[in-house]
Amino acid sequence: MTTESPKKKVLIVITKSNFGGAQRYVFDIARNLKNIFDVTVACGGNGLLVEKLQSENIQTVVIPFLARDVNIFKDIFAFFRLFRLFKSQKPDIIHLNSSKIGGLGALAGKLARVPLIVFTAHGWAWNEDRGIFSKTLIRFAYFMVCAFSDRIIAVSKAIYEQGLSLPYAKNKMTIIHNGVENIEILDKSLTRNMLPEKSLSASFVVGTVAELHPIKGLAYAIQAFAELKELDIAYVIWAEGDERKKLETLIEKLNLKDRVYMPGNIPDAALFMKVFDCFLLPSLSEALGYVVLEAGRAEIPVIATSVGGVPEIIEDMQSGILVHPKNTKEIVRAITFMFENKEKRELMANNLHASVMEKFSIESMIEKTLSVYEG
Fold first, then answer.
1. What is the CATH number assigned to the segment(s) 188-359?
2. What percent of the chain has pLDDT over 70?
3. Which of 30, 122, 294, 349 is the most buried (most CB within 10 A)?
4. What is the pTM of this model?
């Protein structure tokens, strides 16, 4: 009589527990690998990520003091908590996500003698607007990531190429694009109730799904709408975050309260994206742009900044429109073009949909991630 070998233990770790792109990645990895491995996810806080994981019967662990911003004392406490977690759980693989958890986790994992340490780069934090002290600590964190990780996944070619500047990284890095599931998206006629009532009178609705954070460039998008007052257009931002008050003040200052709306987070927003006539991503930095993949899956036309891996998804004027970051005038021209050219925008949306479903499937992402775990 033979007995089955116990499943290998995989411990996936991420700093924040909200549900942005990196958290969506963690959720997709955990959910699709839970039948192959004994999967646990550790993170800071009790946000939506934890709720969604628990609904899939995936074990979660909350790491006290783990937060995105640099705080030496809290980070030291978080490091020792990670070390104790690795020693007690004895995972075969730890899979780290985000710069902070990458540095803390890679060192803790090496000291705890974890057999395989994997890090996924969802972007490099030196691209963000931070002080010199924070950037120095981030560089040191990446040094530890590259020194102590066994394998590094870059979610786009752009991230891979930027990462080549780091020591020890070249021979450890591989590109695995994010992927999305081929799920049914609700038809536009069934999703009108997801829009603020006042926006329903507009003949054309532009939408954004993003965290209200400076890196998402939403202020530039809002400023663009101040120059689009002659067009019958509304702008709806499904998001929440620290920049809400600042953006609300900007909307009021520009007299856009009857054109720009921020109703907050929408659970499972990807299912309702067909309600938008056009999707806008004005980010200043992106690793790849999960939300662009979701817009492509929903077959809606996309305007996005040409940052990070976004040009790996969108071919300018063929499957969407690319604009430069922080360029309000280009956003104005792109929205005007989409508004005035129905046939062309529908063709772009069709092209993007075909490309996303062919090149950015979740099956491909999982298969390649498995090869990293097992290779």
1. 3.40.50.2000
2. 97
3. 122
4. 0.92
Specify the residue for token string 């400076």. Answer: 214
**Identity of the residue numbered 313:** I
CA-to-CA separations, 297 to 122, 179, 313, in angstroms, rounded? 21, 11, 12
Q: Which two tokens stand for residue 106?
A: 């890679």
Distance CA 214, CA 129 (A): 9
Q: Residue 130, Cβ neighbours under 10 Å: how many? A: 15
Residue 107 in tokens: 């060192």
pLDDT tens-digit series, residues 294-324: 999 999 999 999 999 999 999 999 999 999 9
> What is the CATH topology of the domain spanning 9-179+361-374?
Rossmann fold (3.40.50)
Alpha helix positions (H), the chain: 21-33, 48-55, 72-89, 99-111, 132-148, 157-163, 218-225, 244-253, 290-297, 328-340, 342-359, 362-374
Q: Is 73 helix (H, G, I), strand (E, B) or coil?
A: helix
Query: What would the two tokens of residue 115 be?
Result: 């057999």
Please check whether residue 64 is in contact with residue 35, taking contact to mean a CB–CB distance below 8 angstroms.
no
Helices (H) and strands (E) in the chain, counts: 12, 13
